[in-house]
Amino acid sequence: MTTANARPGATPERRTPTPQDFVEMQNSPEFQQLRKRLRGFVFPMAAFFLVWYLAYVLLGAYAHDFMATKVFGNVNVGLLLGLAQFVTTFVITGIYVRFANREIDPKAAAIRAELEGTPQ
Hints:
Strand content: under 5%
Structural class: mainly alpha
Shape: elongated
Strand order of the largest sheet: 1-2
Number of helices: 4
Number of strands: 2
Helix content: over 70%
């Protein structure tokens, strides 16, 4: 069915991209910008989390007195920092989802639509 004969509200036909189409798209400025933007977010965020996690492990291994410092009741610094690891994981996930929804997904959808020959 061609778009000229399409029923109102019908989904337009998608074409199947060829391997050459994928190679050309991978070399396109739009794709390169998308990849640079994604890497510019993911790598620093991953490095931050790994450093934060390593610091926690090293403190647990070598700073026993500091980690055992009571904050209130039976809650010590080590427990609070351990719980902060979970909080940090959820916060980073939320930040990434917001970033992806705002920055990555619209550009990726545009690239996909261009490859498949469908309007956005």
